Amino acid sequence: MAARILIIEDNPTNLELMVYLFRAFGYAPLTARDGQEGLEAITREAPDLIICDLEMPGVDGYHVGRQVKSRSCLPKVPVVAVTALAMVGDRDKVLAAGFDGYIPKPISPESFVRQIEAFLPPEQRSSQRREAHASPGETAPPPPRRATILAVGHSAINLSLIRSTLEPFGYEVIAVQRPEEAAELARRHSPDLILSDLQMPGESGLELLRQVKAEPALRAIPFLLFSASTSGRTEQERALALGADGFLLQPIEPQALVSFVEACLQKASRN
Are 65 and 52 contacting, i.e. CB atoms less than 8 angstroms apart? Predict the structure, then answer.
């Protein structure tokens, strides 16, 4: 069974990113938005690992770390600091507060889960990560390449989340933030699927969809759109009328994204 990971983080964007990444790899993330709430969750939930920001108002991360290590009633739980601190001596200060290690901010979506897993025993690591099945000293083989996905969106975080979700399942993800570049990349790389944000500065996802479907060489590529808007019924209808193969609403659950992509590619292979 994969570990239950408690994230204590007062920054909503950082918290959302970490939750998304852990869910993508089959973990059960728990959340607390400040140190006091985190201490209460530790007692209540008995997590397998704790990730804690250091700089929080009120009860800060240092206090959380000392409290966790001083409570004899708690089982030994790895506690990892996630911090923007980078001064000489900060590492020693973090470890002296009771933390087992620390990861600097900003975190890298491509490597964050792997970094955290280093603090977990193999039996608590997610079965969705191939590294969990490698013998000690072995390098796990990369997953077989399944398809190339062209991801288009103005948010670098969203693109990182899409890449972090799909690449472990064997997909190659080509990410681009400027929709006007997407059609040229599609011609150059011949992706198996295009996944595009609907609302973008300048050219919208609908305009990109219209352009792709107008070109004979690109027309057969499955095209998925995603949007944070829940009121865009008319936009969904327009997208489907223009030839879109599906429409996803944000926030996108990792497994839902994988399932949607797989279903879309299987349907295209039968046509």
Answer: yes
* Crossing angle of helices 12-24 and 254-270, rounded to 10°: 50
Cα distance from N-terminal residue to C-terminal residue, the chain: 39
Where do the CATH 3.40.50.2300 domains begin and end in the chain? 4-133, 147-270
Q: How far apart are CA 25 and CA 21, in angstroms?
A: 7
Of the candidate CATH numbers 3.40.50.2300, 1.10.10.920, 3.30.450.370, 3.90.1150.10, the domain formed by 147-270 belongs to 3.40.50.2300
Tokens of 26: 């089959």
Residues of the chain with pLDDT under 70: 1, 72-75, 85-89, 127-145, 229-233, 271
The beta-strand segments (E) located in 177-228 are: 193-197, 223-227
Sheet holding 246-249, edge to edge: 171-176, 147-152, 193-197, 223-227, 246-249
Q: What is the pLDDT of residues 93-121, one digit of tens each?
A: 888 888 999 888 888 877 888 899 999 99
Q: Which CATH architecture has domain 4-133?
A: 3-Layer(aba) Sandwich (3.40)
Closest CA relative to residue 207, chosen from 193, 229, 189, 223: 223
Task: Tell me, yes or no, if the pTM score tops 0.70.
Answer: no
Beta-carbon neighbour count of residue 242 at 10 Å?
Answer: 16
109: CB partners within 8 A, 6+ apart? 17, 21, 157, 160, 161, 163, 164
Structure-block tokens of residue 25? 């790899």
- Cβ atoms 181, 194 nearer than 8 A: no
Strand partners, 227: 249
Contact 206, 197 (CB under 8 A): no
pLDDT, tens digit, 9 for 90 and up, residues 5-52: 999 999 888 888 888 888 878 898 999 999 999 999 999 999 999 999
